[in-house]
Amino acid sequence: MKRASTRSLARLTMALALGMLAALPVWAGNAPAPPKFRLPSEVAGPVRYAVDLTIVPDRDTFTGAIDIDLNFKQSTPILWLNADKIAVKVASLSSAGQEVAVEVIPTPKDYVGFAFAHPVGPGAARLHVSYQGEISRKDMQGIFQVKDGGEWYVYSQFENIGARRAYPCFDEPAYKVPWQLTLHVKKDQVALSNTPALSETETGNGMKTAKFVETPPLPSYLVALTVGNEDIVDAGTAGEKHTKVRIVVPHERAAEAKYAAQTTPDIVNLLEKYFGIPYPYDKLDEVAIPLAGYAMEHPGLVTYGASIIAVKPENDTLNRQREWVSVAAHELAHHCFGDLVTRAGGDDIGLNEGFASWMANKIVNEYHPEWNMNISELNASQGAMENDALVSARRVRQPIESNDDIANAFDGITYSKGSALLNMFESYMGPAKFREGIQRYLKEYSWGSATSAQFLAALAGNDSAIASAFSSFLDQPGVPLVTAALDCQGGDAKLDLTQQRFLPLGSSGAVPELWSVPVCVRYASGSGKARQCVLLGEQSNEMALTKATGCPGWLDANADADGYYRVLYQNDLLGSLLKDGGHELPLAEKVSLIGDIYALTRSGKMPLGRALGLAPALAQDSARQVVTKTMEITTGLGDNLVEPGLLPRYRQYLVDVYGARARNLGWASKPGESDDSRLLRPSLEGVLANQAEDPQAIAEAEKLAMAWLGDHKAVRPDMVGVVLTTAARHGDRQLFDRMRLAARQEKNEDFRGTLLFSLGLLPEPDIATASMPIVLTDEFDNRQSLNILFGVSQSPKTRDLAYSFVKENWDALVAKLPTDTGAFLPYVAAGYCDPQHRQDVQSFFEGRSTKYTGGPRILAQVLEGIDLCVAYKKAQAPSVAEFLQNYAARSGESR
């Protein structure tokens, strides 16, 4: 077999390691150009992979070899594969029983080419590549290291496009084939992958070889591995096949896996019940990754950020337990929808992730109905609507044409809007029919890939109107604003409905979009209630209220809050809904209505002063979720919307609305109190201390913070966040030094993250100036110390310092921090609300942050956010001033 010269290989290895373009002499400086984005699918595809890796967690590199069984569809002189930060040592090809000489074509990023001595194909072939890769200590992509308890661990994360950092491959979701992994590791360490170990053999020199069972067909991003001195906790079995379940945590943290071990089998059983399909894989290991802020659904080896899955029982909180169950249900739902049937391409990410989010909410609602997970789902949906109202918003089914598009695809539009659309159409179609469509889809495409169009066809069955209506939400950005007007003239009750795109004040968007909106309404009918639905496919429609007995005394145009749209009520419909604090409305509809009221102030269709007047009665509701929802209207106005002379009146307003309940609850829990009281307490005390600037609340937080710094038992874990951040916002240099020392010593990841964020919240400019350089040191893991910088950017008092620090240290920051962090650094300027800063932000970041993956859209959204804030301030500040002046006069107090 012809090989490249020793000198050529040395040059090639160095060039790839440095990520530089280096053409081999054979190309005479004219190396063939790599693909622009996607691999040329018409040339070849994989049939099977066999991967062999040697991984030692405390080293910065690994060695690897991969054999790829190929099917060449046509004769070709070159094969392009995805590869990044990989230095190829040797490559060879066998085809038709012959060895074919191979030259390697290096490229700067994402690709490597293999040029053959003569054209190969069509037909079967095997490519063998030996190489070296990087074990990153600053990224959480590809194969990376994390230190916990003084020991190094190695994990993988290949979604979005990180598999190419582990091996040359077809790193696109449409390529779904079996994988066989072999890992060479230290003999006393645990090595895990998607499938059970086929064998483990000691090989000398303190090493062993773990060979794993071949996987069922998987795309590259679903392959996973972990290596380290881990503890494995037996969680029993789950499902119809009695699948073995284990929780995998860093050494000496087995006790932290208790809640995950208790709940995982129940979640699997509930998912099997809904899907009508047994858990499809041979094992289920759930792995805790320190510092990770995500979870990933790899078949057989699901990974979670350690703070999501593992916590000491004495540090556990209600919110953490609920988050765990929700995230676990999301990831395990993917095992059918996302793994068993994978997405065919990048533009199907939205429905893939949206489905898992929707399924998680359904499972949690069945598992713990008392948690009211549907309200969390509703709030997430309304949060997605805020993003979706932007001109820079992406579509759910967004064409993927670059790495930027891939990076931007994992956002609230993908997860929460996707989930909300499924919820809306399930409500419209009926749960039984909807479930039949899902089961039909899974059975038809099991072990293969499918598009969102194929999903919609299976879901809708013979009802093409459903697929078309669903697509109207998938294929265009934006949120419908449905205007509802009740007409009872002539004796028959009817509802006039119109739709247009919801746009906030200051938006440059137009409103030509139309959706096929499933509008379901609920209204008074005699002594009871009636429900009706219509598919609003035109700009306007008339809906006869066929079940009304006379003119309804009230009507909710978003029954059960299942619709992905905003509602604008005409005439006195809003007043009738809010009568007596909205007593006619169930919890979800009340929360949805408050969200719509806030949104209407953002669009200029309701004065913010009027909304502030509506909030106090709603805030007296007994439901925690209603009280916290009113805070969207009432809080956060001090920075831009309240002139300095009126700040005392604004703060007194907040005390009047929330103070009594906050003081009744206090900062410490009481024996026998409800879960809702424990969950409401941090929100109320945070508003009282940090928005109303209540001296008593601030003093209590400062006292508790000092007590906690001396003894963690002094403050309940669910109050640590608000205690530390409140104390920091009013703290001095002594507190800064105490918190910095505590962060160095803190072993709990969440507490350490809160301490680092708090270091950036102290109000004195000299403290802020001293805190930010820490990010550029190795005092803390840089994947977490970035919290300091974003803490400094929170307050108007120190935001300029954070922005200046980024501008003055741009090169050092992007070199030190995880790859592509530069894309996110414009967020330090997201709090600005004036044209001058907007212009400066654009001038500085354009051409800098936009060079990093995902950067162009992030900068566009930051700039649009500043524009909208300027318009909102101009339009709504006068109504806020008028309200506060009149509010003070009514209460008869001088403020």
Features:
single chain, 895 residues, alpha+beta, eight-stranded mixed beta sheet, 41% helix
Mind explaining what this structure looks like?
- This protein is α+β, with helices and mostly antiparallel strands and 895 residues long.
- The protein is 41% helix and 22% strand.
- α2 packs across α4 and α6 runs parallel beside α13.
- It is globular and about 90 Å long.
Which strands sit side by side, in order, in the main sheet?
5-4-8-2-1-11-14-13
Strand content: 15-25%
Strand elements, count: 29
User: What is the C-alpha radius of gyration, as a whole number of Å?
Assistant: 29 Å
Helical stretch tally: 27
Major sheet size, sense and barrel closure: 8 strands, mixed
pLDDT below 50 for ≥5 consecutive residues: which ranges?
1-28
Mean pLDDT: 93
What is the first-to-last residue Cα distance? Answer: 88 Å
Percentage of residues assigned to helices: 40-55%
Please identify the structural class as seen in this structure: alpha+beta
Q: What's the overall geometry? A: globular
Quick gist of this model?
With 895 residues, the chain is an alpha+beta fold. Strands 5-4-8-2-1-11-14-13 form an 8-stranded mixed beta sheet.
Topology (elements, then pairings):
Layout: H1 6-18, E1 44-54, E2 61-72, E3 76-82, E4 86-95, E5 98-100, E6 102-106, E7 111-120, E8 123-134, E9 142-148, E10 151-157, E11 179-186, E12 190-193, E13 197-204, E14 207-212, E15 225-228, E16 230-238, E17 243-250, H2 258-275, E18 284-289, E19 295-296, E20 301-305, H3 306-309, H4 318-333, E21 342-343, H5 349-367, H6 373-388, H7 403-408, H8 412-429, H9 431-445, E22 449-450, H10 452-460, H11 464-474, E23 480-487, E24 494-501, E25 517-525, E26 528-536, E27 540-544, E28 555-556, E29 566-569, H12 573-578, H13 587-603, H14 608-619, H15 624-634, H16 647-665, H17 675-691, H18 695-710, H19 717-729, H20 733-745, H21 749-759, H22 765-771, H23 782-792, H24 799-808, H25 810-816, H26 835-845, H27 855-891
Parallel strand pairs: 1-11, 17-18, 18-20, 21-22, 23-29
Antiparallel strand pairs: 1-2, 2-8, 3-7, 4-5, 4-8, 6-7, 9-10, 10-15, 11-14, 12-15, 13-14, 16-17, 19-20, 23-24, 24-27, 25-26, 25-28
Helix pairs in contact: 2-4, 2-5, 4-5, 5-8, 6-8, 6-13, 8-9, 8-11, 9-10, 10-11, 13-15, 14-15, 14-27, 15-17, 16-17, 17-18, 17-19, 18-19, 19-21, 20-21, 21-23, 26-27
